[in-house]
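Protein record

Derive tokens from sequence
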Amino acid sequence: MPEPGLVSVVIPVYNEEECLPHLFPRLRSALEGMNRPYEIIFVNDGSRDRSLQLLYEFYKANPKRVRIIDFNGNFGQHMAIMAGFDHSRGDIIITLDADLQNPPEEIPRIVLKIDEGHDVVGTVRQNRQDPKFRKMASRIVNSITNRITGLRLNDYGCMLRGYRRDIVNIINQSCESTTFIPALAQKFAVNPVEIPVGHNEREHGTSKYSFFRLIRLNFDLMTGFSLFPLQAVTMIGMAVSALSFLFVLFLLLRRLIVGPEAEGVFTLLNINFFLMGITMSCVGIIGEYIGRIYSEVRKRPRYVIRREWDHD
């Protein structure tokens, strides 16, 4: 059962040994300043560096405030957060990355918004300290994703967010093997709100999201919350079929009026390659949905815990 008034902070950790010594004091100071009970749940997502050792040292220094969940492999950021949700005890649950790009000092503002009656508090990074290409790509992806999913989120990439216990319970009951937590929470929220938060350049360690991994994440987001890509494939197929039929009629009439032709071979080849590209893209989109079905029907555990450290 959740503890009234308790704030749970869930932090996924993957190879963050350089950031953790800087995160601990700032996080503790921000939480102590709220003058309310709290717990910090660190989820070690298969780190291969000294992250787990540092977490254990922090746990020994704060055994009543800190809990550690240690995975037996790398299951991904969102599955790490799901594990934190499953084990959290607070009425209010905050998610935070360990890289300090989102200041932990923003947590009291999020808690205040939830106390005002909002069930989901999203955040929008201000003055982002990311490369221009990444910021531009993020704006494009946010716009496209909102149109496809029907959601209204201005910053899908910021994981500093707050949730009431009832929203977290619904997310836990969803039991999806792949999901995007901010979008899922927005789907169930009754009174969501977004607030601006600060954003810092990563000073320690390296980003764990490669370009390919970001693409994968956005595929999961779009296919997990909308059938629009499948419907778009159907409409494209119908349009291409209609255009192909009209082109056949044109060639037939031209043959009857002008006679057989030897020209236009390369034009036909270009058209053929274009249609092949569309076909391969459509097959890929369908494959994304089939892959999600395959992942769900296998019923494999979303994550596997090797060990836990808890004062209870």
The chain has a mean pLDDT of 82. The beta strands are 3-13, 38-44, 66-71, 90-95, 120-125, 161-164, 192-197, 305-309. Residues 265-298 form the longest helix (34 residues).
